[in-house]
């Protein structure tokens, strides 16, 4: 009788709990049993592991093999456990030494030839391994991803044979270079957009304070074009934000090394379901709002989305995270995104157009706008109209301000916020608003008139103050003046 223990990691939301892989060899008829709540992909590891061990020129034990994945109440999914299962069997049969098992963790999917294939969630596993102060052995492609998390000793292997040679002290494993990151992200430029100076100013305020935006205007006015360029004026990502974003993308297998420190831009189609937006599944995975974490979620043709789909945005817009609860498990994903939405003013799109006549009746327009609920609109900080371009604006060459110049002002304003309160203005709480967004007597009078005439809710009142704070930060002012407040109020007049 022989037992070997290898450590690995499962995935549960953004967390990667430790999994202990135990292999027990006993006398009896040859059998291979996997226990510990394995999903179908893990159960299929029996055939992959058997073929990989044999093709690596090791002997697959003709004994009664029991592999336990502990803890038993944590569901195990994907092929990441192939490598630790194979190593545990080889160590239990005495074919490889087990001396390094205590200081390292292993994950990787095995091909039938014994080669290692990349796995999802390498960054999430790397962050958990860093906290445990162990080495992490992964397939070479996944190891380069894990190496982005500084302080993690990630080792890359091409095959099962490479890992066994390293365990035996016969050959080292490759160490990815953590500093080999791609150049600065390249975004579409605001200079390509003709006209729309007022809308560009609203987006600059939104970028400075982390506010959500609704762009309303006729077709062809540049709403989608502006939204696509919005990530290019956001402040540069720091290492923590980049790691969180990359870890979420890694959970879906969508992380690409060239997108490191690039603000995500997610634009789901209006036929997307609520689960596609918030995430879910038997083994919960992040949805579009989490994949847009620290980036932009763009919803084009907002009223065309299902009412049920739009309502799921209300909680994450306020809290910055989403909790997915299922009968068997629960997962929590961050969702601190900036919502940029676009819509037409009416079903035909030409209400208020200077040259095109609107074909819709007032009742049709009212039903169209009613597809977006009042509570959701109340949570969108900036609501601006995007007018149609004049003939002169359309025919002249695009000569707008480049994104780099706008981003420089936004970065200065964001730095002021972080130094003052440690967070963007959009994330301020009630007491923080009272502390950092105080008004003078003239400002109080102006805001009282706005509350009365625009019927501002308590939420809208606080959002106006946060917007005014962002306008003042862009101007480099410590105090909020009536001019700053007036600009903030105009962004709520479209509600």
Please give the number of β-strands.
Answer: 18
Reading side by side through the largest sheet, how are the strands ordered? 11-14-17-10-18
- Rg for CA atoms: 27 Å
The percent range for helix content is 25-40%
Shape: elongated
Strand content: 15-25%
Overall mean pLDDT:
90
Q: In terms of structural class, how would the helical and strand content be classed?
A: alpha/beta
From the N-terminal CA to the C-terminal CA, the straight-line distance is 73 Å
Query: What does the main sheet amount to?
Result: 5 strands, parallel
Output the number of helix runs: 21
Low-pLDDT windows of residues: none
Search tags:
495 residues, elongated, five-stranded parallel beta sheet, single chain, alpha/beta, four-stranded mixed beta sheet
Structure in words:
With 495 residues, the protein is an alpha/beta fold. 38% of the residues lie in helices and 16% in strands. It is built from 21 helices and 18 strands. The chain has a five-stranded parallel β-sheet. The chain is elongated. The termini are far apart. The model has no long low-confidence stretch (mean pLDDT 90).
Task: Describe this structure in a few short sentences.
The protein is α/β, with parallel strands linked by helices and 495 residues long.
């Amino acid at each position: 009788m022989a037992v070997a223990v290898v450590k690995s990691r499962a995935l549960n939301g953004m967390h990667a709990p430790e999994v202990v892989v135990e292999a027990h060899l006993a006398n009896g008829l040859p059998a291979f049993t996997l226990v510990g709540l394995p999903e179908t992909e893990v159960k299929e590891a029996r055939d992959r592991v058997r073929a990989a061990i044999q093709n690596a020129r090791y002997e697959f034990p003709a004994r009664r093999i029991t592999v336990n994945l502990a803890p038993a109440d944590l569901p195990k999914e994907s092929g990441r456990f192939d490598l630790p299962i194979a190593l545990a069997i080889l160590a239990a049969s005495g074919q490889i030494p087990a001396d390094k098992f205590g200081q390292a963790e292993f994950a990787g999917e095995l091909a039938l030839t014994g080669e290692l294939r990349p796995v999802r969630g390498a960054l999430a596993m790397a962050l958990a391994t860093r906290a445990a102060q162990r080495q992490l052995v992964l397939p070479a492609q996944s190891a380069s991803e894990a190496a982005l998390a500084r302080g993690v000793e990630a080792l890359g292997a091409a095959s099962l044979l490479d890992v066994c040679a390293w365990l035996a002290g016969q050959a080292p494993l490759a160490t990815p270079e953590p500093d080999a990151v791609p150049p600065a992200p390249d975004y579409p430029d605001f200079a390509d957009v003709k006209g729309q100076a007022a809308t560009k100013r609203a987006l600059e305020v939104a970028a400075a304070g982390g506010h959500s935006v609704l762009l309303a205007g006729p077709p062809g006015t540049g709403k989608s074009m502006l939204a696509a360029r919005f990530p290019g004026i956001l402040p540069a990502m720091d290492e923590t934000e980049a790691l969180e974003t990359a870890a979420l993308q890694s959970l879906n297998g969508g992380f690409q090394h060239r997108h490191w420190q690039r603000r995500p831009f997610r634009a789901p189609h209006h036929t997307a379901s609520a689960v596609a937006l918030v995430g879910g599944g038997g083994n919960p995975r992040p949805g579009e709002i989490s994949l847009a974490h620290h980036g932009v979620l763009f919803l084009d043709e907002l009223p065309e989305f299902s009412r049920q789909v739009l309502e799921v945005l209300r909680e994450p817009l306020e809290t910055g995270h989403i909790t997915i609860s299922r009968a068997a498990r629960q997962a929590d994903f961050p969702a601190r995104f900036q919502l940029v939405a676009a819509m037409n003013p009416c079903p035909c799109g030409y209400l208020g157009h200077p040259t095109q006549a609107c074909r819709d009746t007032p009742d049709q327009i009212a039903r169209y706008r009613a597809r977006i609920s009042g509570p959701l609109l109340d949570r969108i900080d900036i609501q601006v109209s995007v007018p149609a371009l004049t003939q002169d604006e359309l025919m002249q060459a695009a000569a707008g301000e480049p994104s780099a110049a706008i981003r420089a002002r936004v970065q200065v304003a964001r730095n002021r916020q972080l130094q003052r309160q440690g967070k963007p203005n959009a994330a301020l709480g009630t007491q923080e608003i009272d502390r950092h967004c105080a008004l003078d007597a003239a400002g109080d009078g102006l805001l009282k008139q706005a509350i009365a005439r625009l019927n501002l809710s308590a939420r809208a009142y606080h959002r106006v103050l946060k917007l005014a704070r962002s306008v003042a930060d862009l101007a480099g002012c410590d105090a909020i003046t009536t001019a700053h407040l007036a600009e903030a109020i105009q962004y709520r007049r479209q509600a």
